[in-house]
Amino acid sequence: MKDQLKKNKQTNILIRLTIEEKKMIQHFAKSEGSSTTDYLLSLGLKKVIISNRIEYLNDLRNYNFEISKIGNNINQLAKHVNQARKLKTIDSGSINVFEILMKEYLKNLAQANLFLKKVYSCFSKSI
Fold first, then answer.
1. Cα–Cα dist 73/67, whole Å
2. For residue 74, which of 96, 102, 95 has the smallest C-alpha distance?
3. pLDDT band for position 9 (50/70/90)?
4. For the residues of 34-48, what is the DSSP string, one character each?
5. Measured between alpha carbons, how far is 17 from 51 in angstroms, rounded to an integer?
6. With CB atoms 3.0 to 4.6 Å apart as the test, which of 21, 67, 93, 102 could cross-link to 17 if both were Cys?
7. Three-class SS of residue 92?
């Protein structure tokens, strides 16, 4: 069937690209196990819109940076709670609530980090 498809191809499309764009498309095609022609053809015929993967990677890096900033804020809160505990200026109920919330935050953070690593890995392999 592949030979039959090649025989029926009677025209071509010429596009202009930068060298970097061409390299990226060739790399994406190779990572999919396709020729550049087959890769572009399958994308065009399926009407799939390619998102800029580099932009996604930058978004992931920014997201990771924001998570780090949140972590710093939580560390400051923990420091203040510990100081208040030593000075006995905070009640034990508030401390318990804070500890429960901290455990939940750490659990969610671990899950988010695992997910981000998987997504980052997928996009990194494509570039």
1. 10
2. 102
3. confident
4. --HHHHHHHHHHTTP
5. 17
6. 21
7. helix
